[in-house]
Amino acid sequence: MDIKQLIYLCNLERERHFGRAAEASFVSQPTLSMRLKNLEKELDLNLINRGNNFEGFTAEGLRVLSWAREIVAVYEGLKLEVESLKQGLSGTLRIGVMPQCSVSLAQLIKAVSEAHPGLDYRVSEVSADQLIEALSSHSVDVGIGFFEFSTLNELRFQLVPLDDGGVDVVYHPDHFPQLQDIELMTAEQAVALPLCLSEPSRYFRRYLDNFFRQSGLELHPTLESTSIFQLMQGVFVGIGCALVPRGHLIDEMHPALKRCPLDITPMSRHAALVVAEGGRATPLAQHFFTAAGVWLAQQQTLKMAK
């Protein structure tokens, strides 16, 4: 058994396809298949359900896969640690983020980059369930999203809570001048507006739907999209108004738009920045987590001082 076989196994789990797993492993498909069959022979176990295509892992394969993830994560962490000893902290940090979280990820990355200029970033948008799985399987180094803190504690993740600033109604005053005199918008006022909202599968949208439903109301968006860019364009041209977590948008990017706080109950889940427990987080993730925590604390202090 060698580390490459375990890496191939992890790549197969991620890609769910032999050809794509081979590409991700920088080997030919016959080479990947042969090395995985050799691993099965050495362990005397069938790890993979094979048909004309990849058909998943056997029960034994899933057990081996959980160990493979851990070993590969430690191996990758060791490589990064050695590299950082040679030339300072550098490499690509993988961030999994849930859409419409209550922080501007770009501003956070910019702040951390000033402390660690050698870092590069790969950002993926994932659902709530996918994010926990991605963190547990080490397919992302850092997670930003909405969590049950009890679950994070059970899984022994490190976390920094993100400020829940509430929800804003974002609108263009040329199209909705009547909103400029409203200091706090009620649910009844919001539901009467044409709205630009994320699709119903997103956690933030489910939170909105549940709140309005419990208030005896129902949202009927004029525009739905998985893309915040498309939603903001819809707001700009006057298709409707958007409901967004405060802190998610950079106001300077949308100088023509205005916002009004929505009177809404807080989420049952809490926004947080999350990495693996100390000792299991990669050096890149741990340094990012520490620097991000400092910046977030500074932002909170500045906010309280205003």
Globally, the shape reads: elongated
Largest sheet, order of strands side by side? 4-3-5-12-6
Assembly annotation? single chain
The total strand number stands at 12
Helical content band: 40-55%
What would the average pLDDT be, to the nearest integer? 89
Number of helices: 11
Order of helices and strands: HHHEEHEHEHEHEEHEHEHEEEH
User: Radius of gyration, Cα only, in angstroms?
Assistant: 23 Å
Largest sheet: 5 strands, mixed
Unreliable stretches covering 5 or more consecutive residues: none
Percentage beta strand: 15-25%
- Distance from first to last alpha carbon: 59 Å
Q: Structural class of the secondary structure composition?
A: alpha/beta
Folded structure, characterized:
There is one protein chain. The chain has 306 residues and is of the alpha/beta class. The protein has helices at residues 3-15, 18-25, 29-43, 59-87, 105-115, 128-136, 149-154, 187-191, 203-214, 228-237, 283-305; strands at 48-50, 54-57, 91-97, 119-125, 142-147, 158-161, 167-171, 195-198, 223-225, 241-245, 258-261, 270-275. It starts with a helix and ends with a helix.
In short:
The chain is α/β, with parallel strands linked by helices and 306 residues long. The chain has 11 helices and 12 strands. The longest helix is centred in the N-terminal third of the chain and has 29 residues.
